[in-house]
Amino acid sequence: MTGVATEPSDLPVRVRTAIRAAKLSQRELARRIGMDPTALSKALRGTRRLRDEEIAAIGKACGVSVGYLAEGTGPSPVLPETGNRAEPVTVAERREQILDAATVLIARRGYHNVRVSDIARYCGTSTATVHYHFPSKEAALHAAMEYYAHRFRSRLDAEFDQAISARDKLRRLIEVQLVLTTEDVDEWSVWIQFWTQAMLEPRLRPAQRRIYSDWRRLVVTLLAECRTEGLLADVDIDELADRFTAMVDGLAIQILADSTDMSPNRMRSLLLTAFEPHLTLT
What we know:
Blueprint: H1 10-21, H2 26-33, H3 37-44, H4 52-62, H5 66-71, H6 91-109, H7 116-122, H8 127-133, H9 137-162, H10 166-177, H11 182-200, H12 205-228, H13 237-257, H14 264-273
Helix pairs in contact: 6-7, 6-9, 6-11, 7-8, 9-10, 9-11, 10-12, 12-13, 13-14
């Protein structure tokens, strides 16, 4: 996929192993190396690239070599016989760890290829603990979808806060839709899998409909805002919103499935011209 940043998938796993061997919590490790806990959490999910100096600091704090962390070479850390950590993990932290593991595994391996035991192993806990927070794998998929829906809206709100007009908001809306980063790929992967699973499991459909309806309503509201600025005067806003949302979904699926030569740059270009001749964004 042209333009999509990737992170070596084994690096976060080796960092997690080193943390467990050192009997540290993620929060304590972040404190020791002077790293923001949220940034470390994203790195352990594979959605943020660790810098060389951060890898070196993690190795020093955990007592493992940079070669092991970066490339898997050299002695592996020895895991303790018990799962005890130097610092207790709170219930909220454990749930976040499990959700982190579920989202990245479902996104990259596929819903039907992930077992609860895989989620437990990824975040260094037991299957019983996973079931305590998420009674079923379907519940974990649901939580992952809610997480990414919240992530999308937070990113969009941040972009809209910087916009100078409704036209500018449309440009920023398009940019947020693009498949540019590893986390964008994960977000789209979970969304598409949830969509597919909802076709087979009717009980998932209300959540899928709610999230998708919120997204479409946002587009309609933004198009109506354009009209208040003297744009799109003779356009059926509902019809334009339907065309735009369908294009977003279809183009992103082409990129993820690698079924065509679609790229993020071409996706951007096509979405920008979707409003022509009614509204020129390019």
